[in-house]
Design a protein that fits this description.
single chain, 318 residues, Rossmann fold
């Protein structure tokens, strides 16, 4: 379908946010990191519990932010470990703070928002190692977060979706059962050769050249077929956690994300794929701009509630 009018407006705003008038050169990573922190003004929901913690990781402490829609004394909740996007190079806890608050409230669960290490300072496998440390902590130290260790899911958007898919594969291989994996327009391959890469590489928000550069910075000299980099290339997907895959029509990552959903289904993994037409990458995080973002968040929350046993959304309490 044609670009949604909200998408056209978003692309105008994005150009203004990311390319100051008269600037010809591509900004440095430091400049991009500074801009992404200020790019998307959002409303942040109040929750009874928002707490900054640390998880023990192989490279040192990993910062995490815990969100709960209920006080701990009301009992354990299911949990989602959320991994932010940004091409493994940009972003952090603050950039998905609003989305994690909304997800906690809508899905009736605790959320752990993970500040994993970024490339190029910390190339592969630093990010996936930190992601795994957070997932393992949620299951093995449930009392610390007030969560049910038998109802832990992993989620992420873009590069965070890549890390979530990799963590789900590691969980299967290491005997740690997960309730669900929520993959929002995830990177699933290193090939960068799909029709959507070619068709939407420039002018649609997520620039193919920039993401290719970021992938090189993150991958370093690692094997591009390592499933922790390219879940789509995993030899087998049977036995991983049930999945929800969300894609955007005008997104370079659309085809590889949908290919991963199809491979999951072929392996017998329960999966629901939903494409949102007329929108671009990042719509999920911007319900203030995209009606489809709010719709996708509610869809994701319903899928998680079902995965957690059909729990009703609990009331938020002060």
């Amino acid at each position: 379908m044609p670009l949604h009018p909200q998408t056209a407006r978003f692309l105008e705003l994005l150009a203004a946010w990311t390319a100051p008038p008269g600037e010809a050169a591509r900004p440095s990573i430091a400049e991009m990191r500074a801009r992404i922190g200020a790019a998307f003004p959002v409303v942040r929901r109040e929750l009874p519990v928002v707490r900054d913690l640390e998880v023990r990781g192989p490279g040192g402490p990993v910062p995490v932010r815990l969100y709960r829609p209920q006080r701990p004394e009301r009992g354990p909740l299911p949990a989602v470990v959320y991994l932010h996007g940004g091409g493994w190079v940009l972003g952090g806890i603050e950039n998905v703070d609003a989305a994690c608050r909304d997800l906690a409230a809508a899905a009736g669960c605790a959320v752990l928002n993970v500040g994993y290490r970024l490339a190029p300072e910390h190339p592969f496998p630093a990010a996936v190692d930190d992601a795994w440390a957070a997932v393992a902590s949620a299951v093995r130290e449930p009392d610390r977060y007030g969560v049910d260790p038998g109802a832990v899911a992993v989620a992420g958007d873009s590069a965070g979706g890549n890390l979530a898919a990799a963590a789900a594969l590691l969980a299967r291989d290491r005997g740690l059962p997960l309730a669900h994996q929520l993959l929002v327009y995830p990177v699933t391959d290193t090939a960068m050769d799909t029709p959507s890469w070619r068709e939407y590489g420039t002018g649609y928000g997520l620039d193919a050249g920039t993401l290719a550069q970021f992938m090189d910075l993150y991958r370093g000299g690692a094997d591009p077929s390592d499933f922790r980099l390219a879940p789509l290339r995993a030899p087998g997907l049977a036995g991983v956690a049930p999945a929800t895959v969300i894609t955007a029509e005008y997104d370079i990552l659309r085809d590889e994300a949908e290919a991963y959903a199809h491979r999951l289904a072929e392996a017998g993994v329960p999966v629901e794929l939903r494409r949102y037409d007329g929108v671009v990458h990042s719509f999920f995080l911007l319900p203030e701009i995209f009606d489809a973002g709010a719709e996708a968040m509610e869809f994701a929350a319903r899928r998680l509630r079902s995965a957690f046993g059909g729990r009703e959304r609990p009331p938020e309490v002060a």
